[in-house]
Amino acid sequence: MEPQWLEWAKKLQAIAQNGLAFTKDPYDIERYETIQEMALEIMAQGAKADITELRDIFSKQIGYATPKVDVRGVVFHNDALLLVRERSDSCWTLPGGWADVGDSPSGAVVREIYEESGYQTRAIKLLAVYDRNKHGHPPSIYHFYKHFFWCELLGGSATTSIETKEVAFFREDEIPEQLSLGRVTPTQIKRMFEHYQNPEWPTDYD
């Protein structure tokens, strides 16, 4: 659950970004820039972060503000689930990341799985679309939706990358305790096993 101050700050930032994307009135531009600065001050104060770094991050956010898209690959082999260990925090997660401009959702997840694990796959079913704010992840300055795709294993072999330092399959009772909670939660891992055991289930959402 995100703190209330962060939710308010993100909404203010989005209002300001949307206003700046459309208005031509110089007075409105000044007002929206003031709102944007207030949102950054709230974030910096609440997170004890450097406001200069926050300004740099949000200066790159242009156009209408929408949630970002995160994709995660759910790959099973012999009843075990593929996880990768991130170099950034030494914790385990489902392979995945941001979808790039020009990617289809399924194409993005197949690319991410290959880049992070060395395995070639094919997306066969969208298992879940989750609002990150509603699923117990640590707070983030971004609002984004997480897409979990069941992917069929086609080939390849375990290969680490500049982002990952270990690649392995785990049965449900072997899932490591050190999960990268910003990327995936124990509840989500459990839910993916439930989908695997019940392939007729519909897609989860929200």
Report the span from N to C terminus.
Answer: 14 Å
CATH 2nd-level architecture of the largest domain: Alpha-Beta Complex
Structure annotation, total helices: 5
Order of helices and strands: HHHEEEEHEEEHE
State the share of residues found in helices, binned by percent: 25-40%
Classify the secondary structure makeup into a structural class: alpha+beta
For CATH, the homologous superfamily of the largest domain is named as Nucleoside Triphosphate Pyrophosphohydrolase
Poorly predicted segments: none
Q: Given the C-alpha coordinates, what overall shape results? A: elongated
Model description:
By secondary structure, the chain is of the alpha+beta class. The chain has 2 domains: about 5-60; about 70-205, Nucleoside Triphosphate Pyrophosphohydrolase (Alpha-Beta Complex). Helices cover about 35% and strands about 30% of the residues. It contains 5 helices and 8 strands, in the order αααββββαβββαβ. Strands 1, 2, 3, 4, 5, 6, 7 and 8 form an 8-stranded mixed beta sheet that branches. Helix 1 (about 5-20) runs antiparallel to helix 2. The longest helix has 22 residues, at about 25-45. It is elongated, with a radius of gyration of 19 Å. The relative contact order is 0.17.
List the helices and strands and how they pair.
Blueprint: H1 4-22, H2 26-47, H3 51-59, E1 68-77, E2 80-86, E3 92-93, E4 96-98, H4 105-117, E5 119-131, E6 144-156, E7 164-170, H5 186-197, E8 204-205
Parallel strand pairs: 1-6, 5-8
Antiparallel strand pairs: 1-2, 1-4, 2-3, 2-7, 5-6
Helix pairs in contact: 1-2
